Every structure is written in C-alpha cells, then in structure tokens.
Amino acid sequence: MTTKTVQDLNALGQAARKAARKLARLSTEDKNRVLINLAGLLRSDQADVLAANQQDYREAKADGLEESLLDRLLLTGERLNGTADEVQRVAELPDPVGEVIETATMPNGLVTSRRRVPLGVVGSIYESRPNVTVDIFGLCLKSGNACILRGGKEAIRSNTALVALLRRALSDAAVTEDAVQFVDNPDRSLVDAMLKMNEYIDLLVPRGGASLVKFVAENATMPAVTGGIGVCHTYVDRSADLKMAVEIVHNAKVRRPSICNALDTLLVHSEVAAEGLPLIAKKLTASGVELHCDKRALSILGPDAPDTALPANEEDWGKEFLSLTAAVKVVDSLDDALEHIETYGSGHSEAIITEDDAAATRFLDEVDAAAVYVNASTQFTDGGQFGLGAEVGISTQKYHARGPMGLKELTSYKWIIVGKGQIRP
C-alpha cells in the first residue's frame, strides 16, 4: 500500500509501535536468524535491487544530481556484498538487550542495577544512500527496535527493492514483517508529518546534507540525533613523518571523497611546508584533486604549482566539499592549527600527523570532535571500522550518543530494584 496521507503514515507508526513490543522480547537467536537470512539474500538475490538502482541512478543523473550524491546512490554487486558482510558482523556482535550495566547493594539491602532495554521505534529520514536502509534495519533489529524508514526520492526504487528483502528475511525467520516500516512516497509533506509523530517514534536519525539535518533539528517533536556534517581537517605537524603524511592525506581525501569523514582542509606547519607540501600536492593532484590554497601555500608551490592549485577564499574554510577538492593552509604552530579547527571544524573527525608525543597529546585533549586521530586517516570514522558492525549515523552531538552510533546507542536502560520486604521510613 502506498503511503499517501498522514493517516497512512500514522498507521505505519501504530504498526511499528506494536511490533516494537514483540521485538523487545525477541531472543538473540531469532534476531540473528533474521540477520543471517538477510545477509544471504543480499548476496544471492541482487538482480532486482541492482536493476532498480540502475533506474534510480539514470534518472538522478539526468536530473543533474551532483556527483557526490550519485556516488552514494550507486549500488554494485561488490557494494551489496559489503553490506551483507556488515549485516553478518552485526549478527556476530553481542546482544545489548538485557545487559546489566552495573549493580550495587544499598545499606538497607536493596539490590539495584541498570539493565539495557530497546528505545522502541527508531525513525530515519535519509538521502541518496540506499545502503542506509539495510544498516539501520540491521542495527535496530539486533537492539530490539522497530524502524520507520523514509529515503529520498532519488532512491525510491532501490529502497523499495531492499525493503522487500528485509521483509523476506523477517518472514523466513517467523518474525513480524512490521519490524520495518517504509514510507514509499517521496512527498515532502509526509516528512513534515513524520517529524510530528512523537507518539510513535522514540528517536529520529536524519542522514543527509546540512539542509536536511538543520530542518530536522528545528522541526522534530521527538529527540533527534543531528550530525554527520563533516568538515574534517588533517594537520601535518612540524615533527611529522612526511612520507607517512603524504599517504595519510591522500587516503583521507581520495579514497572516497563523497563521504562525511573525507578530508576537507589540510593544515601544514610552516617548518615542514617547503619540503612536505609539494610532495603532498603532487600525489593529490595526480588523483585529480583541486587545491584551494592560501597565499603562503601557493607561494611554496611556486611556478611549478599544478593548474589545479587555485587561490583560496574565506568560504573554503569550514566547507564540506564532498568531492575531489581540498583547502590548504600553512600555519605557524600547533596553537594556530588548534585555533583554525576550533573556528571552522564541525566536530566530526580531525587528525594530526606527528612524531611528537606532547603535540599528539595536546591535539587529542584539546580538539573538540567526535573522533580525533593521531597518525591515521579520518576515513576510518565508520561503524564497521570501529567494530560496531555498521552504524545508523554519526553524531556530532555530545549527549546520548557521539560519533558512529551502533547497537548500544540504540538502547536505553531501566533501573531494576530487588528487595526483601524493605519499606521506606
């Protein structure tokens, strides 16, 4: 049934809420059976999903969707196999539901503890990336939550085909198909209505560009995890191993430039810029990266600077490029680098390349971000890479969850108190 009205949307909410009560009691074995079924289907039944995705991709390209979003939209057999691997890893993770976080015995003999419980119903509004459909479902199911999914219009066919696989995986394991609800109508008015469904949705996770995240943050009537906007810096310190720096910077920018943890701004200490910056720039530009350089960086690159090295402007600092473009700035100290990151960073992922333990410690202690790296690429900020199996999103907030959100971030807890007849005086 196509979701056409607010009443239809509320019906999805009611079904999800009812399913959530069943999922909260579902055994780990049953949850894992669904996930293993799904991993198998993603590997063996790719034809319909890939055909649907090709339709979405062709239409989105004809409509002028930007390259970074086209890359996120595209599914291949290899990418579906990778998604299946992530689902398999979620099945292998410990079940967080029922975990006792801590326990204590009070002076009066009462035994108190906190036990993990599901949130209930998790809603997600997302753009372009159909793999999010699978990631969110898998983590929600394992953590005992139902989910309501609303993808973008550019991926409507892909998401419809993927949801069909999700429901087959549930049905084959004799688990209610209502565990996943899908808003199969891209009408924007339904997004507005979904943001008011606090009666049914316990947590909302937006995945997309800055405008979507801002809209959700300002209009959601239920708690929302807003984040994922990544303005990510890599700072090459005065004591950096320059060979290492060349490789890390290249990976952070080029591996997948369209993801939120890709490098946006390169900061280079002035004491190593003359030697290091040309090496870094040569490798980046060989991969097609356009460099927006401050005056000092352009001067160092000199007359041999590649054609793709252009003067930077103020808008380049603090910009999430999501493409083969990076801003470059020469700084005189670690303090200058920290100040730049404080001014222009988004609190996502920041890195320092250094052989100086004191500098590394200061960077780790003083940079205010969800993920802070020493001598490693920011491309690792990912639920799978952090051992979470997958992620429902990356939070740049500081409450409830921060960074990649996995199973435990989709649970709450309740107090359990066991007594032997105690009454309060």
What would your notes on this structure say?
β1 and β2 form a beta hairpin. This protein has helices spanning 6-23, 28-44, 47-62, 67-73, 77-92, 131-142, 156-172, 188-194, 210-219, 242-254, 270-286, 295-301, 334-344, 357-366, and strands at residues 100-105, 111-118, 121-126, 146-150, 180-182, 203-207, 232-236, 263-269, 290-293, 309-311, 325-331, 349-353, 371-374, 394-395, 403-404, 411-418. The termini are far apart. The chain is an alpha/beta fold and 425 residues long. It is 42% helix and 19% strand. It is built from 14 helices and 16 strands. A seven-stranded parallel sheet has the order 10-9-11-8-7-12-13, sandwiched between helices. α2 (28-44) runs antiparallel to α5 (77-92) and α6 (131-142) runs parallel beside α7. It folds into two domains: 6-225 and 405-418, Aldehyde Dehydrogenase, Chain A, domain 1 (3-Layer(aba) Sandwich), CATH 3.40.605.10; 232-380, 3-Layer(aba) Sandwich (Aldehyde Dehydrogenase, Chain A, domain 2), CATH 3.40.309. The model has no long low-confidence stretch (mean pLDDT 94).
